[in-house]
Amino acid sequence: MSTALTLSGSIRKGSLNQQLQEHVGRQLQAAGVAVTAISLRDFPMPIFDEDMESDQVPEAAGRLAALFGSHDIVFWASPEYNGGVTPLTVNTIAWLSRQKPSPFRHAVFGIGGVSSGKYGTIFALSHLRDSLSKLGALVVPTLLGIGPAAEALDGAGNPLEPAIISKVETMVHELTHCRRG
């Protein structure tokens, strides 16, 4: 059975991106995938500083890297801050990029996000795809940008629009049928 790790680049209470993480997790489970959902709140790491690298690597970075390396699929939901990726996501990637073996070279990655704007995190997702790809991650083609959130999701975080429902189905198909060679 395939395994998936899901996470969100937002840890605030009531986060729509956590709801997206949960929704995609449910869809992956329905496709026969064993899903592990995590919160980055459980992996505290200081702001990345190369001076800390030699002897002060956060224990959480190693634990998180091991999780990335032990799953076939990683789905990362991330909001957009000022047209870019959240500081939490950037910091997490910075610490993970220093782990050996690389936690980005095993799983197939899917990325998505929800925002209040009409472009639905598409700018941030483009940055996130670029960063992950440069680190060796295989990111599936579908970018799951959802917005404006008030019109796109119901109270439980499920997409309302047929186009978004279809995109989620496409991403789940890509994640469950794409393999690293």
Description:
The protein is of the alpha/beta class and 181 residues long. Helix content is 40%, strand content 19%. It is built from 7 helices and 7 strands; from the N terminus they run βαβααβββαβαβαα. It has helices at residues 16-30, 50-53, 59-69, 87-96, 122-134, 149-152, 162-177; strands at residues 3-8, 34-37, 73-77, 80-81, 84-85, 108-114, 138-146. Strands 2-1-3-6-7 form a 5-stranded parallel beta sheet, with helices on both faces. The two termini are 18 Å apart. The mean pLDDT is 93.
Topology diagram in text:
Layout: E1 3-8, H1 16-30, E2 34-37, H2 50-53, H3 59-69, E3 73-77, E4 80-81, E5 84-85, H4 87-96, E6 108-114, H5 122-134, E7 138-146, H6 149-152, H7 162-177
Parallel strand pairs: 1-2, 1-3, 3-6, 6-7
Antiparallel strand pairs: 4-5
